């Protein structure tokens, strides 16, 4: 009896996709088989690095998605569609992580650069879909609950875009150093995890107090 | 302490299956491995196309399933069974997407046609199971909540069937052009996402107001 | 802030495992690759049969699990543990379905028999774990909500065991005809879906009325 | 409209990851293929053992995680991050189980020892992340609900650490007997399932009574 314009169900579906994508990552880490377990374990280091960094990235994506939807009172068809595009990018990250795992090590350094550039491209795509979703939410604010200061929220768009400029830069950095690029992705994820853009609220609203439904 | 005839649990289970199926799609997109990353990335274009189109399709399936269940107050054994058949078709879509990925490109064009015909056949099967579910719901309306105008809902059956006629046509189109068929599937999914059949309500009922439980 | 002895969370976790296991089934259906798509599609018929039958089985397992937990008000450590064993068997069904897919066709008929016997053995294991769970619940009834007639529920144990005797028989039938055995599994699943053992309630309790919490 | 500092959503996300990881375990159990089904079934015994033990371990991890979060009223960024690290370790267990499956049998015994040492290392990592989460929760108790006796909870840290000392010991035991080490992991999981560290509550608080929200 829930309804589609009930944001809780869209959020639950999205949470499910995030949780599955983050857990599927491990399938891209090859399980050693055959002789020489020690050597084999060490030779898969790029898989482990791709796993750890991408796990953090999806985890932070989830947390930020969650924060935004915490102020969404209802959804419309456009929001559902934009959210679907966002999830489409996120769901593809196990593939992108697998690409990094396969080419970061052992391959020609030019191939590692391409792999990281593609990986960074997914983050560009994520920031674009997240930005589109944020743009739609702040355009008129008709989907937010009453706590949100829509005018102030609209003004965060530019800061949001500035914050996302790191990802195109990382596409470029891939051609300088692929391993460094992966490491920076991890650092950026943790940074955004602890320093995310707050949703601006009306004065006097305590963000820790739940909205009375 | 929830009960089987509680439609929320059937919906939650279905949402889970939709979310998992949509996320498993990425496992059918092969991760390039070995030399020539650039060439390999390009050569997998059919995987990417199958991923994007099928992701949209499952996403829209979920949204429409969700809308219908938004007016279902209770479930019976028949509805659970019909819903299970619907989920069985939906869960198989990663396989169908993998088939398209493997044959759309590179194979003889006759094989691409067969792959797309099978893929389109799954959409026929989906519209049949969704139609059966809708038929059961509208037959007596005993499972709907009180907002639904059962008489009007029953009359949507024909329009529902007419809307579904696109899928048998796409089975035929597969033999004309396989890539075009896949593209049309994507367009149709987005179209149904934004222009779905509304559930007819009694006059004066605001579809955005939750039913008082 | 939910608590472990809150049966809703155990149920939600179980629902998740059922939903994932049922959706993973498709990964055991091989996607045709290489020349001769028509021939290949036909040659995988045993995969499709294993998929359809096992999908129904897990779906009905979920429905019955759900019905029973609909009357469970609280859980204890033993119930959590027995439930974990039940889920362990259920989660392994994609493997059992893959075994049937690989041996039902093409292999020597003796091998198909072994595959179906193992598959049937999983159903024996499921009925044992489900029976143990039911036995624990009905032993003292301390975990049921107040609607359940514990004395009557305890007396269903024997009927429960009698109903489960079909599975050891199917282990034997595997050696007579493997395809027939798979078909009977499908029929039995649908039968139990529509004719499950009801949880006995006190006189005058309407099973469709939710318990006032 | 839920909020990130709402512990229920963090718990639901975590529950999802646990449920998916536990169900993905089966993908690491190879499905026999080709002639000699009987011999093949027997030769995969190490896969079955790794599946059963790791299933129990993740199940108990879930139960204990659940118990702790049952007393968490709100979350902060640090808790979300520590929880993400905990889930990262847990999500990797299908890989660790696959490693044990591949090397426990058939390989040189030195390789089985390394496989089990790595597997045990994951349990060390789990107890470290769980310990860090517990340490953060009990440090000031600001995230607990009012039932928890924070002073007493803080004093459980040492007992918690003592309980975890079993895992480094199992790293060592791997080099004595790999199969025995796996068996002990199973026994320890069941032991912790039935004898977990209770969260200390204020006097007179009934742990079975839900907190009035």
From TrEMBL, chains A, B, C, D:
Q: From the UniProt record, list the reaction(s) this protein catalyses.
A: K(+)(in) = K(+)(out)
**Does this UniProt record's set of keywords contain Transport?**
yes
Identify the InterPro entries for this entry.
Answer: TMEM175-like
Cell location: Membrane
Q: How does it sit in the membrane?
A: Multi-pass membrane protein
Show the stretches that span the lipid bilayer.
Answer: 12-29, 49-73, 80-104, 116-137, 165-194
Sorted keywords for this record are: Ion channel, Ion transport, Membrane, Potassium, Potassium channel, Potassium transport, Transmembrane, Transmembrane helix, Transport
The record's section on PANTHER family has: ENDOSOMAL/LYSOSOMAL POTASSIUM CHANNEL TMEM175, ENDOSOMAL_LYSOSOMAL PROTON CHANNEL TMEM175
Family assignment? Belongs to the TMEM175 family.
What protein name applies here?
TMEM175 family protein
Can you name the source organism? Streptacidiphilus alkalitolerans
Q: What is the lineage of its organism?
A: Bacteria, Bacillati, Actinomycetota, Actinomycetes, Kitasatosporales
């Amino acid at each position: 009896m829930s309804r589609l314009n009930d944001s809780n169900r869209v959020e639950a579906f999205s949470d499910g996709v995030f949780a599955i994508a983050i857990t599927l990552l491990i399938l891209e880490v090859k399980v050693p088989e055959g002789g020489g377990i020690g050597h084999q374990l060490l030779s898969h280091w790029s898989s482990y690095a791709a796993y750890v960094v991408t796990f953090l990235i999806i985890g932070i994506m989830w947390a930020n998605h969650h924060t935004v939807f915490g102020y969404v009172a209802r959804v419309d068809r456009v929001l559902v569609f934009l959210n679907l595009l966002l999830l489409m990018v996120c769901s593809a990250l196990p593939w992108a992580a697998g690409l990094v795992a396969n080419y970061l090590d052992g391959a020609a350094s030019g191939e590692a650069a391409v792999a990281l550039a593609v990986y960074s491209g997914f983050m560009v795509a994520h920031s674009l879909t997240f930005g589109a979703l944020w743009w739609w939410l702040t355009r008129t604010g008709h989907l937010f609950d009453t706590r949100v200061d829509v005018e102030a929220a609209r003004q965060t768009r530019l800061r949001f875009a500035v914050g996302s400029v790191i990802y195109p830069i990382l596409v470029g950095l891939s051609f300088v150093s692929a391993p460094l690029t992966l490491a920076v992705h991890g650092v950026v994820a943790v940074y955004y995890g602890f320093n995310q853009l707050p949703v601006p609220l009306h004065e006097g609203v305590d963000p820790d107090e739940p909205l009375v439904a």
